[in-house]
Specification:
The chain is an alpha+beta fold. The protein is built from eleven helices and 16 strands.
Length: 425
C-alpha cells in the first residue's frame, strides 16, 4: 500500500509539472512583451523546479557579458543588484562559455562557484542547476534554479530544466523579434510622417509666368532627405527661385528643412536684393543652428518684365547658363554656407535671361552620383550632357533625369538629387 501511495504521489507531481509546463507554453504564445514575460517565466520555473530561487541572465554579445534580467524567490532584491557577469566567471559564466548544463549537489565543493554573493547577503547556496538558453544555435542567456526545497536536484530535474529552457529560449526569441518589428513599424511611421511634413513644405507646381517656364526634379536617397527647392511670388511682382542642401541626411535634415524654408520665405517678404535677403537669412540661421548644421543654397530672383535675374550664392554649386546648346557656368559662391559665420557677406550677381535661354540649379547629389563601377558622374559629364539637351525646361529635365538613371544603373543612391531649370520662351 505504501508503494502504491508513493507511486500515486509521484504521478501527481509529474502531472502538476506537466500542467505547469503547459502553462509556460501558453504564456509563450500569449505574451510578447519581454519584461513581463521573463518575470512570469521565472515565477513559474521556480514553482515547477521546487526551488528557493530562480534567476535569468541574458547574454550581451557585444560586451561578452551576462546581464541580469529577471529573478524570483528569496533574496530577490539582492539578486537584482548583480547587474553583469563576465562570460566564463562563476558557474553561470562557465555554463555560458561551454554551452553546457551544470548540476551541483554541493556548490561549495566546486572550485568554479563564487561565494561572494552568499557572504554579502547571508544566503546559503546548497545546490543548483544552471542551464544555457540557446536559440538558432546561439547563446542568448543563462537560467539557474537554486536550492531544491527537498533534497538535491536530480538527473530528472536536470532534464526537465533543459526542456524548460528550450521553451524559454523560444519565448525570448519571439519577444525580441516582436520588439524589433514594433521598432521598425514605429520608425516607418516616423519616416512617413517626416516625408509628409517635408512634402507639405515643397511646391507641387511652379507658378505660371507669361513668357517663362520652369521644371523641377527631386529624388531623395532615403525616405526623406535634406535637399529642397522653392519658388515664391514676391509682392513687387518678382519671383524668387531657390535650391539648397542641408547638411546631413534623413529625418533630421528633413525636419530642419521646414525651418529653413519658413525662415527664408519670411525674409523674402522684406525688401532687399538677393544678397541682402541671404545675409538676413544667414544671421537668423546662425542663431538657431546646432551641432554643426549648415545650409548651402542659391537664391535667384526674376523680374519677369525685363528678364533680369539677381543671384546670390551661399556655398552652393554655381548655376549653369544654357543657350542653344551652349553653356557656361557662373562664378563660384561669394559666401559660405548659411548657418556658419554670423556676419558673412554675400554678393549679388545680375544677368538678363534672354529669350531661348535657360538656367540650371542643382545639388551635388548629381555630380557625386556613382555607377556600379564606382565611377563618379562629375561636373564635366553633366555640362557635356547639357550641350545636347532640348531647349525647353521640361524636355531638358526629362533628358537629364534619363541620362542620370542610365549612368547610375542599379547602383545605390547615396545622396539626394535635386534640379530646377528656369527658361525664357
Amino acid at each position: 500500500m505504501n508503494g502504491e501511495s508513493e507511486l500515486l504521489e509521484h504521478f501527481k507531481k509529474d502531472n502538476e509539472r506537466l500542467r505547469t509546463a503547459l502553462k509556460i507554453n501558453q504564456l509563450i504564445a500569449g505574451e510578447l512583451k519581454l519584461g513581463p514575460l521573463l518575470k512570469q517565466i521565472m515565477e513559474i520555473t521556480q514553482s515547477l523546479m521546487q526551488a528557493e530561487s530562480c534567476s535569468l541572465f541574458l547574454y550581451d554579445e557585444k560586451r561578452g557579458e551576462l546581464v541580469f534580467h529577471a529573478c524570483s524567490g528569496e533574496k530577490e532584491s539582492q539578486l537584482k543588484e548583480i547587474c553583469r557577469l563576465p562570460k566564463g566567471s562563476g558557474i553561470a559564466g562557465w555554463a555560458a562559455e561551454n554551452l553546457q548544463t551544470v548540476r551541483l549537489t554541493d556548490v561549495y565543493a566546486d572550485p568554479r562557484f563564487n561565494s561572494e554573493f552568499d557572504r554579502e547577503t547571508g544566503f546559503v547556496t546548497r545546490n543548483m542547476i544552471c542551464t544555457p538558453l540557446i536559440a538558432h544555435g546561439k547563446l542568448i542567456g543563462i537560467s539557474q534554479v537554486i536550492n531544491r526545497e527537498e533534497g538535491d536536484f536530480t538527473k530528472a530535474d536536470e532534464r526537465l530544466m533543459e526542456s524548460l529552457v528550450q521553451m524559454v529560449a523560444i519565448a525570448i526569441d519571439n519577444a525580441r523579434t516582436h520588439e524589433r518589428l514594433m521598432e521598425q513599424q514605429l520608425l516607418q511611421h516616423d519616416l512617413e510622417l517626416a516625408k509628409s511634413i517635408q512634402e507639405s513644405f515643397l511646391p507641387h507646381e511652379m507658378p505660371a509666368i507669361d513668357g517663362y517656364k520652369a521644371a523641377y526634379y527631386m529624388r531623395s536617397a532615403f525616405e526623406v532627405g535634406g535637399d529642397f527647392y522653392d519658388t515664391v511670388a514676391l509682392a513687387d511682382g518678382r519671383f524668387a527661385y531657390l535650391i539648397g542642401d542641408i547638411s546631413g541626411k534623413g529625418v533630421s535634415a528633413a525636419m530642419i528643412m521646414s525651418t529653413v524654408l519658413s525662415d527664408i520665405r519670411m525674409e523674402l517678404t522684406h525688401a532687399g536684393n538677393a544678397a541682402e535677403i541671404l545675409k538676413r537669412f544667414n544671421a537668423s540661421l546662425c542663431h538657431k543652428a546646432k551641432n554643426g548644421m549648415f545650409v548651402s543654397l542659391i537664391l535667384m530672383i526674376l523680374n519677369p518684365e525685363t528678364g533680369e535675374l539677381e543671384i546670390a550664392n551661399a556655398g552652393h554649386l554655381p548655376p549653369v547658363h544654357i543657350l542653344n546648346q551652349r553653356i557656361w557656368q557662373h562664378d563660384e559662391a561669394s559666401g559660405p554656407p548659411a548657418g556658419i559665420i554670423l556676419d558673412a557677406k554675400y554678393e549679388c550677381t545680375s544677368l538678363t535671361l534672354e529669350p531661348g535661354e535657360m538656367v540650371l540649379l542643382y545639388t551635388d547629389g548629381i555630380t557625386e552620383a556613382r555607377n556600379s563601377h564606382h565611377i563618379m558622374l562629375g561636373a564635366g559629364r553633366l555640362l557635356a550632357w547639357l550641350t545636347e539637351c532640348p531647349d525647353s525646361p521640361e524636355a531638358c529635365m526629362e533628358e537629364l533625369v534619363e541620362r542620370i538613371q542610365l549612368f547610375t544603373e542599379e547602383a545605390t543612391q547615396s545622396d539626394d538629387i535635386t534640379m530646377l531649370i528656369l527658361g525664357r520662351d
